[in-house]
TrEMBL record:
<dbReference type="InterPro" id="IPR003749">
    <property type="entry name" value="ThiS/MoaD-like"/>
</dbReference>
<dbReference type="Pfam" id="PF02597">
    <property type="entry name" value="ThiS"/>
</dbReference>
<dbReference type="InterPro" id="IPR012675">
    <property type="entry name" value="Beta-grasp_dom_sf"/>
</dbReference>
<protein>
    <recommendedName>
        <fullName>Molybdopterin synthase sulfur carrier subunit</fullName>
    </recommendedName>
</protein>
<dbReference type="GO" id="GO:0006777">
    <property type="term" value="P:Mo-molybdopterin cofactor biosynthetic process"/>
</dbReference>
<dbReference type="GO" id="GO:1990133">
    <property type="term" value="C:molybdopterin adenylyltransferase complex"/>
</dbReference>
<dbReference type="InterPro" id="IPR044672">
    <property type="entry name" value="MOCS2A"/>
</dbReference>
<dbReference type="InterPro" id="IPR016155">
    <property type="entry name" value="Mopterin_synth/thiamin_S_b"/>
</dbReference>
<comment type="similarity">
    <text>Belongs to the MoaD family.</text>
</comment>
<dbReference type="GO" id="GO:0000166">
    <property type="term" value="F:nucleotide binding"/>
</dbReference>
<keyword id="KW-0547">Nucleotide-binding</keyword>
Length: 77
């Protein structure tokens, strides 16, 4: 199982901040594509990706037991 954490607007769009995927190993880009298809998260392309609390690139590999987080750009005042 891979745990997916969604933050801010992505969590709102998906209706949940946490998703569990029954995958053994996959690329971060494949997780992103899956989330776009299943949850309509079109803005996920702008999000930063972290695996186990370390920022990574789209081609990084996520394995069973990992946590991948998608963090959209935020603004505030």
């Amino acid at each position: 199982m891979i745990k997916v954490l969604l933050f801010a607007g992505l969590a709102e769009q998906a209706g949940t901040p946490v998703i569990e995927l029954d995958e053994k190993e996959t690329a971060a880009s494949a997780v992103k594509t899956l989330l776009k298809e299943r949850y309509g998260l079109q803005t996920i392309d702008n999000a930063m990706i972290a695996i186990n609390e370390t920022y990574v690139k789209d081609n990084s590999i996520v394995t069973e037991g990992d946590t991948i987080a998608f963090i959209p750009p935020v603004s505030g005042g």
